[in-house]
Amino acid sequence: MTKAIIRRDFLKAAAAGTGIAAVGLPATATAIAAAAEATPFRHGVASGDPLPDAVIIWTRVTPVPEAAPGSGAGGPAEVTWQVAADPGFQQIAASGTLTTGPERDHTVKVDVRGLEAATTYHYRFLFDGVASPAGLTRTAPRPEAEVDGLRLGVVSCSNWEAGHFSAYRHLAARGDLFGVVHLGDYIYEYRRGEFAARGTVVRPHEPAHEILSLADYRTRHGQYKTDPDLQALHAACPWMIVWDDHEVANDSWSGGAENHDPATEGPWAPRLAASRQAYFEWMPVRTGPAGEIYRTLRFGTLADLTMLDLRSYRSRQTSGIEVDDPGRTMTGQAQMDWLRSVLSGGGARWRLIGNSVMISPLALGSLPAHLLGPLRRLLGVPEGGYALNSDQWDGYTAERKRLLAALPDNTVFLTGDIHTSWANEVPRTAATYPASPSLAVEFVVPSVTSDNVDDFLRAEPRTISLTAEGLVRAANRHVRGVELDSHGYGVLDVNPDRVQMDWFAISNRSRADAASSWLASFASAHGSRRLRRAYRPVPF
Ligand SMILES: [Fe+2]
């Protein structure tokens, strides 16, 4: 029996409720969009953060036409939610009623408890006699359950103005994903036209100005949630998300951001609070007792997924030898203490870490100026500064050293932020590779739409970037694969023997009907901490 057949049998079993991979086929994007426009549920439904007995379900109700996101208009609205074992909602597993209103932008978010582990559920909402589109979600297996496969979509950097979210549509159409990991930059904060597709706005976002106030952030989140491809993928499976910087402002740190000027935009704290409030209202994410977003999810004995918050507690970005200052932090002390205890405790066979910015060291010093320019802009390298990206872990070297020393075997970093595709072995430093062993592996997924290297160069894809990729790899031998041009998504497949990331590119982000094609795959055998190229994507 071939591996592919084993996988298909397994998926069938999963669909029948005995496995973990499949949650069933989503409705088409077009059908969802049409249904949403005709109902008060025009922002779709979503679910997230599955536990063995719980999952978050989400929607937004528009009780009267003028109650647009961020408007503050519209009164209280009573909404019923239902979680069922069957698509006809005859076998209700949990249900309830709550009142939402303008104080929470008419969003509805329920942490549904008391569910069965490793089970597929249908969920929907009812308002004024109208049912929302139904979503599919799934609870996690119990920690001690033996699980033989886990498949996740992996995405980041979805910029409305830079194009259509075809990556989401193609992921939704697969029907084989347990869930989706979004590594941040789910929205972008810029004013209209400031960061588009090679300078051209594919579709204008709302509001037209840079978002600063609570109403602004709500309006922007609300518009993103009208995208049919985004709605299709949210309705298809639970998401596990973390923010990066653009959910607030570019290159944010604990006390400000590169794209925040207190002189013209006011103090940082209220802007941060506004962005956070809108995020928690609009995203299916579970927060800890102190409002923290870092957390661990677990999928039986096979894998756990630790999602990190690398923006809320970090020291300000710097350059030069200051990056080595042992007092600088990316995570903050409390999150690092928590992370170390998570990593040293009895974890699953694979330790996945959702890590918004690249942890592998990266040397760009050998690149010629015409290539270094676009890479600098993409990677945030300061002009005239050292040739490294001080916004990612390269700007926090002492803390990275401490974290790498604490990594358990079989750690896999899942990373976004830099809009490009990378397969890295993670050395202690770039200079010591390969003399000292790789400590982990890292898969970096490309942007869903945001500009990358050929876009900054205004060049044809796969022309000038090829030179840059060759030079990056020559200067960074731990970078086993790099592709700087494509937009798309990743699919991570985990089994007890290996993890494999498949990268897929979309054909044209300016077109709503863009095709998807396989780009590359890398796998890591359990216990190896190394990568090898895989020559075909996992079948589905
Ligand atoms: Fe981004």
List the defining traits of the structure above.
single chain, 540 residues, alpha+beta, seven-stranded mixed β-sheet, 24 strands, 22% helix, disordered N terminus, binds fe (ii) ion, Phosphodiesterase/alkaline phosphatase D, PhoD_N, TAT_signal
Give an overview in words.
With 540 residues, this protein is an alpha+beta fold. 22% of the residues lie in helices and 24% in strands. The chain is built from twelve helices and 24 strands. The chain has helices at residues 3-15, 29-37, 166-174, 214-224, 228-236, 262-265, 268-282, 333-344, 369-379, 397-405, 453-457, 464-475, and strands at residues 45-48, 55-60, 77-84, 92-100, 107-112, 120-127, 130-131, 135-138, 150-155, 179-182, 239-241, 252-253, 256-257, 295-299, 303-307, 350-355, 411-415, 421-426, 440-444, 479-483, 488-494, 498-506, 516-525, 532-534. The strands form five sheets. A seven-stranded mixed beta sheet has the order 11-10-9-21-22-23-24, with helices on one face. Strands 14-15-16-17-19-18-20 form a seven-stranded mixed beta sheet. Strands 3, 4, 6, 7 and 8 form a five-stranded antiparallel beta sheet that branches. Helix 2 (29-37) packs across helix 5, helix 3 packs parallel to helix 5 and helix 4 packs parallel to helix 7. It is globular, with a radius of gyration of 22 Å. The chain starts with a helix and ends in a 6-residue tail after the last strand. Mean pLDDT is 90; it is low at 1-26 and 382-387. It binds fe (ii) ion.
